[in-house]
Design brief:
Number of domains: 1
Strand content: 15-25%
Helix content: 10-25%
Largest sheet: 4 strands, mixed
Order of helices and strands: HEEEEHEEHEEEEEH
Radius of gyration: 18 Å
Length: about 200
Amino acid sequence: MQSEYLLGVAELGQDPYPRIDALNFFGPAMRPYFFEHGQFRVPSLRTEAYRLQLNRDIVLPWPWSVGSYEGALATIGSEKNIPDRKDYLRSCNGPWTQGDNHQVELWLPWGIGFVSCGNHSIAAGILAGEGVLTPSDVRDMGYLFDEVLHDGHNFLDLKTSRVLGPAPSWRLGAVFEIGRLMREHGLLAPPALLMAP
């Protein structure tokens, strides 16, 4: 999925795919399980305890603008550090660094980072194989596995056995169940950094 989105705007032009949205990632059947009384059911974890490595971790940007993407790809990366260069599309160049506009929501146990802002520069960092990102929000969604199951076709409510509906694709249904296995085996991706309380 990451590869499709990274190639999409370059191959197909402006707005090639729909936005990747954390709340809609597993489809509309799951959305009611995220909230209670209009609030997220789980609190945000300490963001400073997590780091996403753009060359390794699952980060899902949504590059949508051809021009912005071209500018980011042309200027971001350690090999693109050209002294005194001022690109008209980007005021800085060289190694990828996290900026104030980089907003990524990290969902555990999967370790999926959903990009809400900074899509083009984060995509360029992924393609350059460099950069470390502190997420702007971290949620452990493991409670879902006590309430919902994906049976290969549909999500099912475990308490009522009610069919909730399909995942957007079979692979996203599989991703949901991989999260169950990760929780059962005590795996979080990426693991929290060891930090003083």
